[in-house]
Write a structure and sequence with these properties.
The structure holds two protein chains of two kinds. Chain A is an alpha/beta fold. Chain A contains five helices and five strands; from the N terminus they run βαβαβαβαβα. In chain A, strands 2-1-3-4-5 form a five-stranded parallel beta sheet, sandwiched between helices. Chain A starts with 5 loop residues before the first strand and ends in an 8-residue tail after the last helix. The model of chain B is unreliable at 1-10 and 179-187 (pLDDT under 50). Chain B is an alpha+beta fold. Chain B starts with a helix and ends with a strand. In chain B, helix 9 runs antiparallel to helix 14 (464-566). In chain B, the strands form four sheets. In chain B, strands 1, 2, 3, 4, 5 and 6 form a six-stranded antiparallel beta sheet that branches. Chain B has helices at 2-8, 10-38, 41-45, 55-72, 76-99, 126-143, 151-175, 191-216, 223-286, 291-304, 341-353, 393-401, 454-460, 464-566, 573-604, 614-628, 651-665, 723-733; strands at residues 308-314, 320-324, 357-358, 362-363, 369-379, 382-392, 408-414, 417-422, 435-441, 444-452, 610-613, 633-638, 643-646, 671-681, 684-691, 738-743, 747-752. Classes of the chains: A alpha/beta, B alpha+beta. At the A-B interface, helix 1 and helix 5 of A face helix 14 and helix 15 of B.
């Protein structure tokens, strides 16, 4: 299970802490990479910028916030889906926004799932647990050879 | 406005005419009156050849002049009085003429001393009388207060008639047509009178014009009628004058013919009398002319002087002894002429008077009618019979009259007996043209009647007057048309000018309006751009709100939870309670954020209208509500088939909020009933949600639909005061209305239209 990584793209440290806690509670915290803005997330996926020295990350699940500094979530998604190396990666948008336009745009760009962050922590905990269990353990990721 | 100025210039013009006319008339009238009072003939007559102006005429002129002047000086009552008196004078005079009576008004005020050629001393001419009636009527009409619109028109027409009558008289005088400046041979109007009436008419016209100019600022419309009436009247006057002149010509010719015929007839008879007288004288000188000599004389006479039927000698016993020619006169020989008493009387009278005597018409021996001529013979003072001349009327008169005065009918009467006539039966004899004259013969008077026969009349009476009338009337029509056209054209021009000005104003106005529309549009575009920018800003704002307000709330809730879970053992009960309160507050804040987002979203989205099944939506909402508290005893009474045209995304929010409120405010009651249905008001559907819950005081009803306004405290009913504001906004966006009816503890009904 060591290579089953989760990429969490989240700029809010509070949310990051809460999500990481939720993942920890669900025993999924071992392989989590956190990117704090859109650029970092893309660097991480394509092995560029601060991640240039490292092997590109191939997460089995990317939890993508939409409102991000520098490059926002939908632009990140567009880049992921626009590149042959990453276009099949499972991406789940996890955001506070329930805006119709965001949901619509997300699906148009080929997101695998769209989840609104519940305000109550209980709800968030439950959502993270379920997402993690489903995508890490249940879902079969795209083959490595592409 | 230039039009007003233009016509104001005309008012003084007409004023001046009125003043001048009134002044002249009053002066002339006053002068003539003074002349009558001071016996100054010069003043009455003005110029020697003129007919003197009658006293009443002068008085009329004075009155009319004063009347005209009193209009200018604003004294219509005085004008009315003057007009009434002038009209009365004229009317009474006309009555005198028409009925041939004498009302004694002609010499009422003054003894008539200047002899004018008038049938009635002191009486004015009939045309003057008529003119005064018209003038007086015009003054009365203009000074009366009734029927103000027609006043100038009537006065103008009267003025036209007066001018035409006056001008007719004046022109008639200049042209020598006597009968035009005085009708028939009644009183002849003075030339100054004719001129005076023309002036008076002008004054009346100007007064009428002045009235109209002040009132209508334009040439009066009746000017056309005025000109037409004036020219037509002049035309008729001219026609009359021509006819009268022709008639006078014919009459003069007839009189001349009669006079010439009289001379001819006398010239025919006198030499024959003289010839017989010569025979008588010879008889007297010779003692008694021998028969042979006498007969030679008589035969010569018969041969040289036609007309004799016979010549004879009558002896003192009145027996015809000699007669020449004998042939045909045998019956006369030895005829006693005094066989009848009347003849004997005549013969004896001729003998006693010793003068040539003509007998009345008698039957002649030879047949036919004739007369006898006796020349008494006295030899040495002793009566010795008569020389007798026998004439037949026809034989005598035909010799001269046959070829004289052709074309005239001639009749000669001896007393009542017609002794000769010619042409009378041939042509129709018009008694109106007959001229009579008397021929005095020795002791006898013959009457001669001469008249032109119809042929001659037809020749003498040319069609000139009729042609002149036709031409003049045509001219009247043409002049009237010209005036009318000129007036119409000027009116048109004025109207066109006005219309053009109006049009220009309109165009300028339109240009201004267009400029304004353009600037407004530009402003609007700017605003729209601004609004668009504002909308985008708002969207960005709400987007931020949805993210950035939620995140800290989640953090508060999340970390409180984490504290409770991970460090519960380190906190006492109070600490845990505080953390729970932090969590509750964050949850409530989250709901507030959600509601605010919904409220903002209802205002932004484009409205679309589709048929929405409200009943279905209400049922779905009721099911959702039941799920939240399944143990509550609530009856939902939802009318089936309620549909509405509206936005399918917004109408659910309305029903969710209203039914949610009903659910909420009935929560303190053990049993509740919530109703959704539709009713009608003013023909429009009114939807309503009714509950039997807590209700509210209607005194605060106006706060109900405003955001963040609450009528219940949070500890009784939770809520943030945004739901009904959202409902109100959605309903308003549909063009509808929302209102509530409620009473405390009796329940609430919220109505809305779409």
């Amino acid at each position: 299970m060591k290579d089953r990584l989760i990429l969490l793209v989240e700029d809010n440290p509070d949310d990051e802490a809460l999500i990481l806690r939720a993942l920890r509670k669900a025993n999924l915290a071992n392989g989590v990479v956190v990117a704090h803005d859109g650029v970092e997330a893309l660097d991480c996926l394509f092995g560029t910028g601060v991640y240039a020295a490292r092997e590109p990350v191939k997460p089995v699940l990317t939890l993508l916030d939409l409102k991000l500094p520098k490059v926002n979530g939908l632009e990140v998604l567009e880049c992921i889906r626009g590149d042959d190396r990453t276009k099949r990666l499972p991406v789940v948008i996890l955001t506070s926004s329930g805006e119709q336009s965001d949901i619509l745009r997300g699906y148009e760009l080929g997101v695998n799932s769209y989840v609104c962050k519940p305000i109550e922590y209980g709800g968030l905990l439950q959502a993270i647990t379920q997402l993690g269990l489903y995508w890490v353990f249940l879902n079969e990721p795209p083959p490595d050879g592409r | 406005m230039p039009a007003v100025k233009k016509w104001n210039r005309f008012a003084p013009w007409s004023n001046r005419v009125v003043i001048v006319a009134g002044g002249v008339l009053a002066t002339v009238g006053l002068g003539a009156l003074l002349g009558w009072y001071t016996h100054a003939v010069a003043l009455v007559r003005m110029l020697p050849p003129f007919v003197p102006m009658q006293y009443s005429t002068a008085l009329g002129f004075l009155l009319c002049g004063v009347g005209l002047l009193s209009f200018v000086y604003g004294r219509p009552r005085l004008a009315m009085a003057c007009g009434a008196v002038a009209a009365a004078i004229g009317l009474l005079t006309l009555i005198e003429y028409v009925f041939g009576t004498d009302l004694a008004i002609d010499r009422l005020l003054i003894q008539h001393f200047v002899t004018a050629e008038t049938p009635q001393p002191g009486r004015m001419a009939p045309n003057s009388a008529l003119s005064f009636v018209l003038s007086g009527a015009a003054l009365l009409v203009m000074s009366s207060s009734t029927r103000p619109r027609q006043r100038p028109l009537i006065a103008g027409i009267l003025g036209a008639l007066i001018i035409a009558l006056g001008l007719g008289a004046f022109l008639g005088y200049l042209g020598g047509v006597e009968s035009d400046h005085g009708w028939r041979d009644l009183t002849r109007a003075a030339v100054q009178t004719g001129t005076g009436f023309a002036v008076l008419g002008a004054g009346v016209f100007a007064t009428a014009w002045r009235r109209d100019a002040v009132r209508e600022r334009g040439a009066p419309l009746w000017l056309t009628i005025f000109v037409g009436v004036m020219v037509a009247t002049l035309a008729v006057a001219l026609w009359q004058a021509l006819i009268v002149q022709e008639r006078a010509q014919i009459e003069r010719t007839t009189v001349a013919q009669a006079s010439s015929l009289k001379t001819e007839i006398k010239g025919l008879i006198e030499p024959r009398i003289l010839a017989l007288d010569r025979m008588a004288k010879r008889w007297e000188v010779r003692g008694k002319t021998p028969r042979a000599e006498w007969e030679t004389d008589a035969k010569l006479l018969l041969a040289h002087q036609p007309g004799f039927q016979a010549i004879g000698w009558v002896d003192p016993s009145f027996h015809v002894r000699w007669i020449v020619p004998l042939t045909g006169n045998e019956a006369a020989r030895d005829l006693n002429l005094a066989f009848e008493e009347r003849r004997r009387g005549a013969l004896e009278a001729a003998r006693d008077r010793r003068k040539v005597t003509l007998t009345r018409s008698a039957s002649l021996v030879k047949g036919g009618k004739g007369f006898l001529l006796y020349v008494p013979i006295f030899v040495a003072g002793e009566f010795d019979g008569f020389i007798l001349g026998v004439f037949s009327f026809r034989g005598l008169l035909d010799t001269v009259l046959r070829n004289l005065a052709p074309g005239y009918a001639i009749t000669v009467f001896d007393g009542a007996r017609k002794i000769y006539s010619r042409n009378v039966s041939g042509g129709r004899h018009d008694a109106g043209w007959v001229k009579k004259t008397k021929i005095d013969l020795h002791g006898l008077t013959w009457r001669l009647r001469v008249s032109p026969d119809s042929e001659l009349l037809a020749k003498a009476q040319s069609s000139l007057p009729e042609v002149a009338l036709a031409v003049a009337l045509l001219m009247a029509v043409l002049v009237t048309l010209t005036v009318h056209l000129a007036q119409t054209a000027r009116l048109r021009a004025t109207q066109t000018e006005g219309a053009n000005r109006k049009l220009e104003n309109e165009i300028a106005e339109r240009k201004r309006a267009e400029a304004m529309v353009r600037s407004l549009n530009a402003e609007l575009e700017k605003r729209v751009i601004g609004v668009g920018a504002a909308n985008q800003e708002l969207e960005a704002f709400t987007y931020s709100v949805s993210h950035d307000l939620r995140a800290p709330l989640r953090a508060m809730d999340g970390f409180s939870q984490a504290l409770l879970e991970d460090y519960a053992d380190k906190l006492d009960a109070e600490g845990r309670d505080y953390l729970k309160r932090v969590r509750a507050a964050s949850v409530q804040m989250g709901r507030l954020v959600d509601d605010l987002l919904q409220l903002s979203r209802t205002g932004r989205a484009e409205l679309e209208r589709k048929t929405v099944d409200l009943s279905k939506l209400a049922r779905a909402t009721s099911v959702e509500l039941r799920k939240t508290k399944p143990d509550r005893e609530v009856t939902f009474d939802i009318a089936p088939g309620v549909v509405a045209k509206g936005d399918p995304r917004l109408l659910p929010i309305v029903l969710e909020n209203l039914l949610g409120n009903a659910w909420k405010f009935t929560s303190k009651h053990p049993e509740a009933r919530i109703e959704f249905a539709v009713t009608k008001k003013d023909g429009r559907p009114v939807y309503y949600v009714r509950d039997d819950g807590a209700g509210f005081d209607m005194a605060y009803a106006d706060k109900l639909f405003k955001p963040f306004q609450r009528l219940h405290s949070a500890d009784k009913f939770e809520g943030n005061g945004i739901g009904l504001a959202t409902v109100a906004r959605i309903v308003r966006r549909h063009g509808g209305r929302v209102w509530a009816d409620s009473a405390v503890e009796k329940g609430t009904t919220v109505y809305f239209t779409l």
